Amino acid sequence: MRIDIISVLPELMESPFSASILKRAQEKGLVEVHLHNLRDYSEKKFKQVDDYAYGGGAGMVMSIIPFSKCIKQLKAEREYDEIIFMTPDGEQLNQQIANQLSLKGNLLLLAGHYKGIDQRIRDKYVTREISIGDYVLSGGELAAAVLSDAIIRLLPGVLNDETSALSDSFQDNLLAPPVYTRPFEFEGMKVPEILRSGDDKKIEEWRHEQALERTKTRRPDLLKNNSQE
């Protein structure tokens, strides 16, 4: 897989991709992540990439020309399965979307800033718009990093135990059950005996019951379309 990210502040994303799982995934050759500085495509003297909004109002708008030039150059080099704009008014990211995108080959992410990007970029190039939540960030860089992390960890070979991702929260519309490790007893609190029984079937039944109960209590909305309710 290859992920290209266009940003006015690519340095904000260098750290997430240079440590831990995301770093190892790149070192193994399982994914390529390329950051592109939007200012490199500006035609203005001081590499400005924003301008005043038509119709007035507060805030600046990211210009159409730098984005268009960068996207055209990248598209001339390869086909993209999706060109994704990170925006608060996009579809809200969930595990199913991450699963879908993990099956793609090439993704291009656009990180907005200021008051947003010229609508014509969205109309002409963007194939999907995604939000990571109902709140506003200073820019789309952190959102692009979050989406990338959610996708990359699902790629075969990225996690040491590939079955780990299958038991994550939201994979089956349930939150993950509680987990424990040593010591067995800590300040009077003990690990549930079932987890030390060695009976795999009963342990899985217990985990499912715990996951279902936790979901009913904390996120009942997840069970609306879940046949297990």
Outline the structure in words.
With 229 residues, the protein is of the alpha/beta class. It folds into 2 domains: 2-152, SPOUT methyltransferase, trefoil knot domain (Alpha/beta knot, 3-Layer(aba) Sandwich), CATH 3.40.1280.10; 169-223, Trp Operon Repressor, Chain A (Orthogonal Bundle), CATH 1.10.1270. It contains 6 helices and 9 strands, in the order βαβββαβαβαβαββα. It has helices spanning 20-27, 64-77, 95-101, 119-124, 141-152, 200-218, and strands at 2-7, 32-37, 50-52, 60-62, 82-92, 106-111, 128-131, 185-186, 189-190. A 5-stranded parallel sheet has the order 2-1-6-5-7, sandwiched between helices. The chain is elongated, with a radius of gyration of 22 Å.
How would you summarize the topology of this molecule?
Layout (H helix, E strand, L loop, with lengths): L1 E6 L12 H8 L4 E6 L12 E3 L7 E3 L1 H14 L4 E11 L2 H7 L4 E6 L7 H6 L3 E4 L9 H12 L32 E2 L2 E2 L9 H19 L11
